[in-house]
């Protein structure tokens, strides 16, 4: 898969997707108001950012970034995000071959933990 | 691209492309044939390779067969029209004799006068010519633009056919077969003069000059290898002295670069009469390291980090450079040794890649890129088995075993000697003492590395951006020093 495949898959699912360019090798895929469907956050929404992977072949970044925070900082592998204080870095590795479908499952799985 | 004759030229293709060409070109003992093909550039520091990526076989009436062969203007136009941005045109034709082929006057007219200008005008790349011999040899050249409407021939130093075997054809003047001396008699007596001549002329890069890499270097030196590239940013420390071939106590005191230690040891034990050794004291994850590796015919991957191994895995397919890799796993419980095993495998087109043979996890690559594998808190919370894998425990005899088998893989890869290298990825279990072979393991159908085959994609996005800006230190505090002294230039002797 490629970053473009992921963007196109998310758009195809009806999500609002933007790309955020902050400089060389600092590009992000930004999902606006991603609806959480399971777990204690079900019914809420969060912005989700996934770093644009420059790797060939694609290597999934080892975390997603969410806004606003979903858990107290320092707990459940949640750390400060390089995107700013409103954002939270959730360290979670995608442990399967990366595909756009796997990414969506991964995001949902992460939110379902809370 | 039209530049530099100082940059060596080579051509590479996969075994399936080679087989398709042979099928098309073989018209018997009295008839030559031709085809156009598409190539992409793979650019190293000292070498540019034209990697053939697809054939544009002639349609009916697109060439004239009368003993010799000629292409029509319509065929040229169709071929040029099928090129995508970044792709060049190659003309491939057969000759009726064996070995490296020189060019007839007609051959020169066809490539230089009829094609070079049209191809350069359309693509900005030189036209590449290849000629097949009847014994499976290839010869090749490119036509470099030296002035408006003026093109000069630049012969390829090598042509590489890459599959489960790496078949090299060397230019007889640029890379003549060396005479083996009395100091190689025993070696030659095992696999013969022809194989020895191919083995010692292959350009070999060793990425990582630690325990396994330093031993591979010594083994190759004694066998007669003559063209080496050593890539490692690291320096000798006291803890390296029990498992680095050629390292001395004083090297640890002055923290000598590992590439310098390897170079010194290589020269001390080499049996070749003439040596070309390039020291590259940079990480593979820098532009300099990557470019130096792209100059090689074969790469030994003697690094244990997932990130550089991911890059090498990609290069093996993307740039058609076989990579020989190994890994050691030693399990210790407290002070008690429990078990050890090690793996040896060659990856590249025609073979399963590191991920498909379960020698590399892509999630580990992701963790390495994110810096997690240098985070003690993260490591501490991993399952014990995973922690042991990442601990990279090792002792010299384990490294000797891995290095020996990696060299055997090298011999098998170049000479096609399965009876030396075995038939696939190998895993040795210290207890009960068995070597397991995963014969003929190929990539999964949807493998992302295999999909890169002959693509020549720009892999610079795979590098560590922190190394490009800080000239020495990674964000994780690992040392990535510049060469000793102040120069950015590499060292070649």
Q: How many independent structural domains of chain A?
A: 1
Provide the structure class of chain B.
Answer: alpha/beta
Ranges of chain A with pLDDT <50 over ≥5 residues? none
> How do the SSEs of chain A run, as a string of H and E?
HEEEEEEH
Describe the secondary structure blueprint for this structure:
The complex is a heterodimer of chains A (114) and B (493).
Chain A: H1 3-12, E1 16-21, E2 27-35, E3 45-51, E4 63-67, E5 78-80, E6 88-91, H2 100-112
Antiparallel strand pairs in A: 1-2, 2-3, 3-4, 4-6, 5-6
Helix pairs in contact in A: 1-2
Chain B: E1 8-14, H1 15-25, E2 34-43, E3 47-56, E4 63-66, E5 68-71, H2 73-81, E6 88-94, H3 105-123, E7 128-132, E8 138-147, E9 150-155, E10 158-162, E11 166-170, H4 185-201, E12 203-207, H5 211-223, E13 227-231, H6 249-253, H7 258-269, E14 276-280, H8 287-293, E15 298-301, H9 306-318, E16 323-333, E17 336-347, H10 362-370, H11 376-380, H12 384-391, H13 396-415, H14 418-421, E18 426-429, E19 434-437, H15 465-470, E20 491-492
Parallel strand pairs in B: 1-3, 1-10, 6-7, 12-13, 12-15, 13-14, 15-16
Antiparallel strand pairs in B: 2-3, 2-6, 4-5, 7-8, 8-9, 10-11, 14-20, 16-17, 17-18, 18-19
Kindly describe this structure.
The complex is a heterodimer of chains A (114) and B (493). In chain A, a hairpin with a 7-residue loop joins strand 5 (78-80) and strand 6 (88-91). Chain A starts with a helix and ends with a helix. The mean pLDDT of chain A is 95. The longest helix of chain A has 13 residues, at 100-112. Chain A is built from two helices and six strands, in the order H-E-E-E-E-E-E-H. Chain A is of the alpha+beta class. Chain A is 20% helix and 30% strand. Chain A has a six-stranded antiparallel beta sheet with strand order 1-2-3-4-6-5, covered by helices on one side. Chain B has helices at 15-25, 73-81, 105-123, 185-201, 211-223, 249-253, 258-269, 287-293, 306-318, 362-370, 376-380, 384-391, 396-415, 418-421, 465-470; strands at residues 8-14, 34-43, 47-56, 63-66, 68-71, 88-94, 128-132, 138-147, 150-155, 158-162, 166-170, 203-207, 227-231, 276-280, 298-301, 323-333, 336-347, 426-429, 434-437, 491-492. Chain B contains 15 helices and 20 strands. Residues 471-493 of chain B have low confidence and may be disordered. In chain B, strands 9-8-7-6-2-3-1-10-11 form a nine-stranded mixed beta sheet, sandwiched between helices. In chain B, strands 19-18-17-16-15-12-13-14-20 form a nine-stranded mixed beta sheet, sandwiched between helices. A two-stranded antiparallel sheet of chain B has the order 4-5. Classes of the chains: A alpha+beta (114), B alpha/beta (493). Chain A binds chain B through residues 1, 24-25, 54-63, 91, 93-95, 97-98, and chain B through 310, 314, 318, 362-363, 365-367, 369-370, 372, 378, 446, 448-449, 451-452, 457-459, 461-462, 465.
